[in-house]
Amino acid sequence: MSESAIKPRIGIIGTGAIGGFYGVMLARAGFDVHFLLRSEFDAVSRDGLTVDSQVHGLLKLDKVQAYACAADMPPCDWLLIGAKTTGNGGVASAIVQAAAPGAKVLLLQNGLGVEDALRAVLPDALHLLGGLCFVCVHRTGPGQITHQAFGAVNIGYHSGPADAPTRNHWVEQGASLFHQAGIDSVAMDNLDLARWQKLVWNVPYNGLSVLLNASTTPLMADADSRALIQGLMAEVVQGAQACGHVLPEGYAEHLLKVTGHMPDYRPSMYHDFTERRPLELDAIYARPLATALAAGCDMPKVRALYHALAFIDRNNR
Ligand SMILES: NC(=O)C1=CN([C@@H]2O[C@H](COP(=O)(O)OP(=O)(O)OC[C@H]3O[C@@H](n4cnc5c(N)ncnc54)[C@H](OP(=O)(O)O)[C@@H]3O)[C@@H](O)[C@H]2O)C=CC1
Ligand SMILES: CC(C)(CO)C(=O)C(=O)O
Known about the structure:
Order of helices and strands: EHEHEEEEHEHEEHHHHHHHH
Pfam family, one: ApbA
Catalytic activity: (R)-pantoate + NADP(+) = 2-dehydropantoate + NADPH + H(+)
Pathway: Cofactor biosynthesis; (R)-pantothenate biosynthesis; (R)-pantoate from 3-methyl-2-oxobutanoate: step 2/2
EC number: 1.1.1.169
Bound molecules: NADPH dihydro-nicotinamide-adenine-dinucleotide phosphate, ketopantoate
Number of strands: 9
Function: Catalyzes the NADPH-dependent reduction of ketopantoate into pantoic acid.
């Protein structure tokens, strides 16, 4: 921890929907939070960040410690990465510039193996952790975030210079940051399993929202799209099993039920498509497909969805 800080100093690398939401919640809980921005730097420096939350009400952070350049940030004890996985090449140098010695880097991203690529370019002294966000947030304008539902961040240690007890300590500290901000967070022993588990939701809904131009309510209401969702979910569960992960019994059915009760929601991939940003196809489709195949499990429905999305993505930019 930086010596002058009573609480760990937190840096947000990529202040979009996820980075903005959790950053605002942590700042409101009294943490010293510093936000790295790109296209929205001017607007957020001037007008602050607003979270219009259907859970917590209207949250406003008027004076944002905003930066356009990571080298200007003070050394941060925890760095929360809110950039899309498609931008991870560009965030590595920002992490190095904003990290205090021995900093904890928490990757708040969807997909499989996202820590592996980043680990390869991070200094050994940094701790790398994965955070699975169960939340429905999206940007509606510069510095404007809408929060529709949920919020939990589940955390697992990926790699770094810590023995087993120290790993647990850092995971617990990460969870405690979120608890202090009123957000649920549990420690996960097996990050890979947790990532597969999250994919059971993201593989069908993220991709189908783009392919069928639909949010969750119509996707759930229509018998054909619901059958597609179920077929995709079943394959991801099989893929996870082939890789040695035992998912809770009835997990896919549980997710269907939860989604049926969620507010009508457009996943982040839908927003990337409409804003003509690159889709997170590598992390959410290509890597799970390759990993499952290497373990002897083909996922033909997932593969077909991936190829359709790759076509759409190439023609969208
Ligand atoms: N939205 C959600 O509800 C959920 C999202 N996730 C996952 O969280 C991750 C983030 O998603 P989300 O918040 O929706 O994405 P957004 O597109 O809303 O936010 C990404 C932010 O990162 C910024 N950024 C990217 N690269 C850099 C860089 N090099 N330097 C500074 N800023 C950078 C972008 O800036 P710019 O505006 O300039 O592009 C943008 O503000 C994804 O992996 C997603 O799958 C997981 C669970 C739920
Ligand atoms: C599954 C969901 C909608 C909420 O748990 C989510 O976290 C996501 O969009 O990735």
